[in-house]
Structures are given as structure tokens and as C-alpha cells.
């Protein structure tokens, strides 16, 4: 890739969770222009209606595409990806990459064939998940926990607040009692950000699986086919949908990840 033909890739999430996916992609593909948008006006997506999420994600992606001529969009949010991908793909001609829970690898890695899906309350209820389980994990007993609290804890961690393991234990209490549970799908992009804390609460689990690396691989493949739309240089930047005070720790973290500018975008609900 030459300096003048760097693809513009948008990462979208309700909050900071998508940064866990971005990190994997940026590690593999450092030579792209990155935009990261979090819809903090509607955070958390966990318990919002499907129709509302579909409308928000379409509006925001369309808005940013008009402004920046995007080359690829990553919906770095399982709660949104499990419902929004068909409408986005209908609307956009650029590649749309979703993030969906890694049920298939978890079923393959598990020796006890007892696995868990840890996701948001919205994701665990989706038909999409029932199909994934039916297709890839028929040989397994699949437990599900939907948690908004864990999403909030991950948000707080990136803002520099300590994570209390007791809060995590309370959320995972059913699983703590299951000694043969050996593979957990981190089916929310916020959860890799608190993986070490989750691991401490579930010592019997040998595999914690997220989708970050698989997405990075997929994007690397798709970029071979992408014709970059704008040759202009741009800095990597963050967008949000509601004014907020960026705590020092979060600002430091975003800068360390390569983002140089933060801007508010106005989206009518
Ligand atoms: N990070 C999002 C996901 O992967 C959801 C967070 C939220 O509930 O807003 O599902």
C-alpha cells in the first residue's frame, strides 16, 4: 500500500468495546486510515430494541460515509451485528464486516463439550445465535449469560476505574459452579477488555474466545479487492454522538492506539 492509497476503515460500536477488535486489526494492518465511532448517545445497546439499533447504525454509518468516503466498515459490536448486517449490506457497496460470537471455534476447542456464551442481554436472545448454535455446536451443551453490568465495567476500566472482581463473580455466579465448563465465547466486544478479570473468576475454563483475530484476517483478505476511494491523507480519529468529558485515562488510551482527534457528530434519533 502506498501512502496515498490507504484505505479508510470505520469501526463502529456503542462504546469502547470495538477497540478490542480495532487493536487486532491495527496490529495486522498498521497502514490504514482508521475512524472509530461510538454511539454513546444510545449506549448501552444491550437492551435496546432491534428496530432502534438498526436505524441508528444505518444513520451513523451513512453520515460518516458521506463525510469521509469510507472503504470498509467494521461493525465492532455483536449486539448490532447480529441484526444489522443485511440492511447495511443492501445499502452500501463497500465491504461490511460484522462481529458475531465465535461459537464454532469454542465448540471445536471444548473437550468437555460444555461451553458458555457471554454476551449482552440482547445478543443472547437473538435468533441469529440459535442458528449459530444449531449449525456449529450441536454436540455441546451451551450456557448463556447476558450481562449489561460487564459492559459497564469494561467501560469504566478504560476510564481508569478499578474493576471489582466481586461484581464479575456476581454476574458469572451460575458458571462458577460448573466445573466442566471449559470454553467461553466472549460474545461482546467489551469483554476482551476485561478478559483477565473474567479469567480469574472462572479458573476451570481453558479457552476464552473472541473474534478479533479472525476479523483482522478477514479484513486483510477483503482489502486486496478494495479500490481506495479517496487519496487524501487523513488522521485517525474518534467520533461520538453525545458530548461527554473524556477522562484522562481514556484520552491517553485512545492516543496510544493512534487516534489524534475526537469529534462530536450530530445524529437525529
Ligand atoms: N460492544 C457491544 C457488543 O459487542 C455491546 C455493548 C452494549 O451493550 O452497548 O455487543
Q: What's the gist of this structure?
A:
The protein folds into two domains: 144 residues, Rossmann fold (3-Layer(aba) Sandwich), CATH 3.40.50; 108 residues, 3-Layer(aba) Sandwich (Rossmann fold), CATH 3.40.50.1860. The protein is 42% helix and 17% strand.
Could you describe the 3D structure shown?
The protein has helices spanning 19-28, 50-68, 78-91, 103-109, 121-125, 127-136, 149-158, 165-171, 173-176, 195-201, 212-223, 248-256, and strands at residues 8-13, 33-38, 72-75, 96-98, 114-119, 141-146, 183-186, 207-209, 237-240, 261-264. 42% of the residues lie in helices and 17% in strands. Strand 7, helix 10 (195-201) and strand 8 form a beta-alpha-beta unit. The protein has two domains: 8-99 and 213-264, Rossmann fold, CATH 3.40.50; 103-210, Rossmann fold. It is globular and about 55 Å long. The strands form two sheets. Strands 4-3-1-2-9-10 form a six-stranded parallel β-sheet, with helices on both faces. Strands 6-5-7-8 form a four-stranded parallel β-sheet. By secondary structure, the chain is an alpha/beta fold. The structure holds D-glutamic acid. Residues 13-15, 17, 43-46, 77-79, 120, 123, 151, 188-190 line the site of D-glutamic acid.
Short key terms for the protein model shown above:
Rossmann fold; globular; six-stranded parallel sheet; binds D-glutamic acid; 10 strands; 269 residues; four-stranded parallel sheet; alpha/beta; 2 domains
Itemize the secondary structure elements and their pairings.
Blueprint: E1 8-13, H1 19-28, E2 33-38, H2 50-68, E3 72-75, H3 78-91, E4 96-98, H4 103-109, E5 114-119, H5 121-125, H6 127-136, E6 141-146, H7 149-158, H8 165-171, H9 173-176, E7 183-186, H10 195-201, E8 207-209, H11 212-223, E9 237-240, H12 248-256, E10 261-264
Parallel strand pairs: 1-2, 1-3, 2-9, 3-4, 5-6, 5-7, 7-8, 9-10
D-glutamic acid is lined by residues 13-15, 17, 43-46, 77-79, 120, 123, 151, 188-190.
